[in-house]
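Re: the 469-residue chain
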Amino acid sequence: MRENVSGQVNMAFIAAIVSVATIGGFMFGYDSGVINGTQDGLEHAFDLSKLGTGFNVGAILVGCAFGAFGAGRLADIIGRRSVMMIAAILFLFSALGAGAAPTSSFFILARLIGGLGVGAASVLSPVYISEVTPASIRGRLSSIQQIMIITGLTGAFVANYALAASAGGSQAEFWLGYPAWRWMFWMQGIPAVIYFIALLFIPESPRYLVARGQHDRARAVLTRLFGPAEAGRKIAEIDASLATDHHRPKLSDLVDRSTGKVRKIVWAGIGLAVFQQFVGINVVFYYGAVLWQSVGFSENDALLINILSGSLSILACLTTVVLIDRIGRKPLLLIGSAGMAASLSTVAIAFSTGTLEGGSLQLSDAAGTAALIAANLYVIFFNLSWGPVMWVMLGEMFPNQIRGSGLAVAGFAQWIANFGISVSFPALAASIGLVITYGFYAASAFISFFFVRAMVHETRGLELEEMKG
């Protein structure tokens, strides 16, 4: 069924709900991006090796993996909104703990706690949005999640730059005698509190309520969203989609009972999640400042480049909002794969022309400019496609019965891949070099093109009850 956004659809209420839900995306981005620009402070405060830095940076990602897995399952038990509220509390504890950490172990624990929140927000914000929005504009509204992720990343970059500039460097003393890098983490507490309070004013997902047998509450929410006539029709559709296999969702639902094999739709979700990380995007987000300093830029210039990349990312995501419900998800993924493969290859080639001086890669002006332009083109292609579209797809591609479990497994895979790429980058860059490292990311982008062609099915305009698995 194709839905026309008209009649009694309460767009003001839907917009308010989406605005609140996507604060989770902002926290996801901020919590992920705040580490970029704090590495020097961490290394100095905790006397870290390069491998140690990688684990301190990547600690959040282990928490993210378990947060995503646990949230997908927990959301089927206590609801989408309730788990997002727990995530907001975890964000606050992480911000306070990471900034105050006296040791590396304490810092890692604080970031693990934050990771649980990031993982939960990463999978629940898009699925919640997909469950309360009309099919005809679902892609556009779900894409706002990625805009908020990038806004959070950019917000962290701007805050880090402002704090470092005001203090005279990330390790210089700032307010109350604490170094600026600690305040970079403490700043996270402000949006975390806003997120928790805002969640108090939005309803639970009506599809979750129907699945739990709470039809009256679901009808009240759907009536407010779409009007009384549409509310009744949607409840009937949700009930029908669950009727053929109406039991409490569980992980074993991901296995096709007729064949005994994991459903193809699950492998498609895992593949989308893993390839989104294998193209190396979070190397740019987590290590951007260090990367650009390693090829000859100053700390100040490197932080400004981060802000430029974040701004370009937002513009690319806005383009996706315009296109995703017009041309579809799959075409955008294919365009992104091709563009990232070409731009990442250019970065690798530019790095191959450099020379090592004092342990740092030195590029000619021409090669440095080419690397900078290609890297930002790569960021644009990613955020035009795989950045928002992967989350949109995971939020809508699974049938109602397995949505929570499918998200749990795909989200877990996404964050484990993120951890592997992020933690390995410092060691790989130092051992095999930036050329081979970026060559791997380029190859992954190339392979992802063929994966999408073979495994991904278009979901544009389909109701969630029409998803097959």
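Confidence is low (pLDDT under 50) at residues 1-6.
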